[in-house]
Amino acid sequence: MANHLFLPIVSLMVGASLTVLFARQRWLARGIVVGSVLFHLIYSLRLLWVVAAHGRQVSQAGGWLAPFGITFVADGATAIMLAVASLLTLMTVLYSFASLDEGYERYFYYPLILLLLLGVSGAFMTGDLFNLYVWFEVLLLASFGLITLGGTRAQLEGGLKYVVLNLMGSIAFLIGCGLVYGVVGTLNMAHIAERMQTIQQPGIMTAIACIFLFAFGSKAAILPLFFWLPTSYHTPPVAVTAIFSGLLTKVGAYSLYRVFGTVMQNELIHLAPWILTIAWLTMLVGVFGAMAQMNVRRILSFHIVSQIGYSVMGLGLASSLGLAAGLLFTAHVMIVKTALFFIGGAAEQIYGTGDIKKMGGLARREPALAMFWFLGIISLAGLPPMSGFFGKLALLQAGVTQGAWLVTGVATLTGILTLFSMLKIWNEVFWKKSYADVSKLPRVSPGLLLPGALLVIVSLALGLGASVLVDYTTVAGMQLFDQAGYIQSVCGLDGCEAVFQAAIR
Amino acid sequence: MYESVILRTVARVMMPLLLLLSVFMLLRGHNLPGGGFIGGLLASAAIIMQIIAFGPTFARKVIRVGYLNMAAFGVFFGAIWGLPALFFNLPYMDAFWINDPIPGIGKIGTPVLFDLGVFFTVVGVTTRVALLLAEEPELFPMYVQAETEE
Amino acid sequence: MSILLPIAIGSLFAGAVYLLLRRSVVKLFLGLTLLSHGVNLLIFSMGDGLRRGVPPITAADGTTLPGTTDPLVQALILTAIVISFGILAFILALAYRANQAVKSDDLDDMVTTDRL
Fold first, then answer.
1. Tell me, what's the pLDDT at B142?
2. Which of B82, C75, B75 is nearest to A60 (CA)?
3. How many structural domains are present in chain B?
4. C62 CA to chain A: closest CA distance, Å?
5. CATH code at C4-109
6. How far apart are CA A270 and CA A184, in angstroms?
7. Closest residue of C to B125, CA-based?
8. How confident is the model over A267-297, as pLDDT tens digits?
9. pLDDT mean over A442-448
């Protein structure tokens, strides 16, 4: 038993409530936010080590045994995602100090950020399907607040679409939960996995799996369900867009991994060809959408969709190798994408617009910003020595090993197109001559540069120390795909059904 | 605000009764129907009745509580009572009870205190939402008029 | 009872889909409300002895107590109701603010963020 698993959740809840109470004392509130996110970060880094040393960590809230109580499980995938999520949140908080005005801080910006991380952490750690729904709602409500905070017309319009389409996804998730309970008679993930092996009607489980694919897919923004993303992501302040790009869609991808990779493996094998088709279509449509755009944040928003295609590809390969590669890629893209939003947002702040045709000449004016942007796009496009190279390499290797030629080919092509579309921003914003007098532009403040730069350095470090990361994600992918091991860690060696039968006799 | 003698009299009489009932519900909640959520809804119903009968300005004047702060305190208070279990290497939210029931209140343990946190959160959030809606000038013009008359 | 429930769920879903396809924001909101009620009923129909039969409440000798229903679905619905109450309240406030900003109830007037 690892009873400490609830500590990061509690620290975020306490931090969020205290920042509401002390919203007027600006520096105290900032201190509390940094303190609780820092605690979360240190905890997750330690969890990375604990999971590597001792395997899966399980805790049952209130001491209620597994198929009945609320279970928290942490394996390698959880630990990686938690660490990356808290790192991104910390950087976002630092970026917000420099970029947001006092009105945001007074109107509960920091509590919402903490609640967002709370929902995300809960969704990563929970071992119960209905709890996953509840954590999703926690993070969605926080994101609803964040995306409309400020109340401009564009935010309200984009927010309405974001809220309604995400609510549709949530409702589908709820339908799926209800149907699973009706068919299998349990909502604990390990217990579902166990009972699904002996189920009489396999067809109905496939139908339910499709509902889950819709539900998580609409959160993760896969192909036919991504339309809410590019219409809403460029409306809130940059810090909010950056944290959304880092966390929200990736929680959807992680839930796909958890529910299909661990719990519904039979259905994953049924649906794998479809998932792969969705994957390459998502990659292509996302990157083509990005090429048509002329606004920094809109380009990056479409790239989020494109990158989700890679994460889904890792799932569609339906093997521990594919899941490991997908995890590696997802962790990398969370970091780099957020970094690019930070840097692009800093450039936007200098010019007062995000239209790349009206920008220019920043390479001469802000060489540091330009350098980190360049390293970031190299990483996103997947060139060595950045982390993106190893993320894509692992995915392509897994694809070739399993003979999924079409999706592998499209993934390679998408990498090139990504580089093309990123170089467009490079040329327009940083390289070309500025129409305005560059020397009169305001300088970028260190507070805006530093978070993005740090994240790019993290990406570089992950690329240079790739062997450690690849080893870790390989183990994590095996843990994720190891259904029997998951059941045994959660419910004990005899499995959940034995505990269940013993309890009701 | 509705200028109704019946409503105002009833609201005045019902307020303490509803608050008492809410506390009763809160305390019996561990083993019987009730609990922090239901108790909180009852208490906030009492306050919302005041808002309907006398207007939001009056309600704010009489009950001087920051409802949002109350909700935040509730979350804080509810979250920390799961922590003592961790010191004894038990899972989060494992319950501790005192052995002898206190007369009139009943058995007290960490779940009751957690329920108290839920109670504060529900009262704070529900009342805050009602107040915000009631103070929206375009939705309820009569409230704004009444304020300017004073 | 068991035939009424599917009919009720079906009509709630049908009404919800019809309202969701309208252009008015208010009808969109009403459609989402109906949809969440339909889902709650759907979850309700999943327990209650219709299928699983055995609630996890048993007498001391292991037999099922007469007159008990499945409590888990009710707990799930309670949670879902509270959550959807919060979210629908948020959407109502958002629709109201959007209406103030756009001065229209028509979703086709809210295209600022869709333009390329």
1. 59
2. B82
3. 1
4. 6
5. 1.10.287
6. 19
7. C86
8. 898 899 999 999 999 999 999 999 888 888 8
9. 84
